[in-house]
Amino acid sequence: MNTTAHSRRGFLAGAGAIGAAALVGGCVTSSSSGGSSSSGGAVTLQSNLSAPQAKSAMQQVVDAFNKRGGARGSLNTVASETFRTQLPTYLTSANPPDLYTWYPGSVAESYAKKDLLLDVSDIWEKPELAGYSDALKKLCTDSAGKKVFVPTTYYWWGVFYRKSNFAKWGVKEPKTWDEFLGLCDALKGKGVAPIGLGAGGNTPWVASSWFDYLNIRINGAAYHRDLLAGKHRFDDPEVRKVFDRWGEALPYFDPNGTALPFQDATTALLQGRTGMMLIGTFFADSTPKDQLDDIDFFRFPVIDPKIPLAEEAPTDGYFASARTGRKEETKELMRFLATAEAQEIYLKGSSGTSLPTHPDAKDSGTPLVIKGRKLIDDAADLTQFFNRDSSDALSPTADNALTRYLAEPKEIGSILTTWQRDAQKIWSQ
Fold first, then answer.
1. Distance from C-alpha of 387 to C-alpha of 402, rounded to nearest angstrom
2. Angle of helix 395-407 relative to helix 412-427, nearest 10 degrees?
3. pLDDT at 81
4. Do 87 and 94 form a contact (C-beta atoms < 8 A)?
5. Which of 37, 237, 244, 427 is the most exposed place for a label (fewest CB within 10 A)?
6. CB atoms closer than 10 angstroms to residue 17
7. Dihedrals φ, ψ of 169, to 5°?
8. Rounded Cα distance, 384 and 139, in Å
9. Distances from the Cα of 365 to the Cαs of 189, 206, 292, 369, in angstroms?
10. What residues of the chain score a pLDDT lower than 50?
């Protein structure tokens, strides 16, 4: 990773929850949800990377670790949304799994405050993590100064589309909001639903991407982070402006936007039933590999040229249970996951659309990834994602408010009042 570019992410310190290859859904692939925490035995790695390509890539990483001799790991894959709702239960159980895929920043901090995460500060002194940027170190440190996380990948969000479809429809990437609405109009005229969403089923959190991007384009990234930390109100006039703009795009959304989970919305996009979709690169793990070359994206359009261009670039990786009876073995596996070798194994085995955190690890080098890395490196600021910049607990308040807005846009006043009230309960806990 370009350290200079990544040092721009210093602000990431406060970051924290949804997204990434991490949130690709799939079936529950193992019935066991716990792991014996007595010492000895394999380290249980509880993973939410349940899309077939991601799951298989994770198994390749664990197999490579097990071939080295020493501690052993055992992968337990759980459907992503099940994992998300069960995570607090895993961490507080008497017999928890040892290690978990999840997110750093605010989300890890909320668990660290309850003394649920293993202090792994000593790992950060080891050679495997020596070259990691200060921004990443900060992102993985809790408010007590302990390192509680090992980051392994990061990725970007954008408005994705199929190149062959844009060519067939005779349209091109927009740069400004007005050009974007013009593109939507053109697609609608061709009988295509311009904007796919995927906020149905168990992935309502996808709608937060629209809130995040409109807010960072209209009010800026600093305002956005402060809002999610409870320093502004969801019923403020600034937030209302976000929905005024969203309302301009609303007629162009797929009418099935809140009926389909994002995996089905991905299929609709690939089949040309929708024109484009604001999503993170994790959606590629649900995309047939032979279609990846036809996928491209553009930056979320500029709304106010005076606002510095921020992008959503969430980081993923691992934290461990403070209650593990296999502390040293768990740390050994975490050190391996931090290596360039382990990260390259994962990228080769998965869709390869995320970026490694190890400075010496090679990414897949595809045109899509080169363009994505440039998007992140050129950004004036980076955010993580709604619940990563707030907490897992605040996320359902956004899901409720935004899915209600999509169904009843005229009720925005009462929706924002309710959202503020629900958020206040979380902030005051």
1. 14
2. 170
3. 83
4. no
5. 237
6. 31
7. -85, -5
8. 11
9. 36, 27, 13, 6
10. 1-38
Token digits of residue 114: 């309850």
In whole angstroms, give the CA distance from residue 15 to residue 138.
Answer: 10
Neighbouring residues of 54: CB distance < 8 A, sequence distance ≥ 6? 21, 24, 282, 285, 350, 351
**67: DSSP letter:** T
Q: Token pair of 160, please? A: 């994705």
Alpha-carbon distance of 264 to 243, in angstroms, equals 26
Give residue 40's pLDDT: 66
pLDDT computed for residue 7 by the predictor = 32
What does the DSSP assignment read for 127-144? GGGTT--HHHHHHTB-TT
Rounded to the nearest 10°, the torsion over CA 342, 18, 385, 107 is -80
Distance CA 298, CA 174 (A): 8
CB proximity list for 378: less than 8 A, separation 6 or greater: 309
* DSSP, residue by residue, 264-325: HHHHHHHTTSEEEEEEEGGGGGGS-GGGGGGEEEEPPPBS-TTS--EEE--EEEEEEBTT-S
Pairing type for strands 157-162 and 381-383 reads: unpaired
Dihedrals phi, psi of 303, to nearest 5 degrees = -105, -50
Give the whole-angstrom CA distance, residue 152 versus residue 314: 11
Domains and CATH numbers, the chain: 11-155+315-366 (3.40.190.10), 157-312+393-427 (3.40.190.10)
Among 368, 319, 364, 359, smallest CA distance to 345 is for 364
> Quick check: 134 and 351 in contact, CB under 8 A?
no
Q: Where are the alpha helices (DSSP H) in 93-220?
A: 106-112, 134-139, 163-169, 177-189, 208-218
Within 10 Å of residue 13's Cβ, how many Cβ atoms? Answer: 17
Count Cβ neighbours within 10 Å for each residue of 358-375 and write b for 16 or more, e otherwise.
beebebbeeebbeebbeb
Instruction: Single out the residue of 158, 62, 126, 88 nearest to residue 373, CA to CA.
Output: 158
DSSP 42: P
φ, ψ at 311 (rounded to 5°): -135, 155
**Cβ–Cβ under 8 Å, residues 193 and 253:** yes
Residue 259, preceding peptide bond in cis (omega within 30° of 0) = no
pLDDT of residue 25: 29
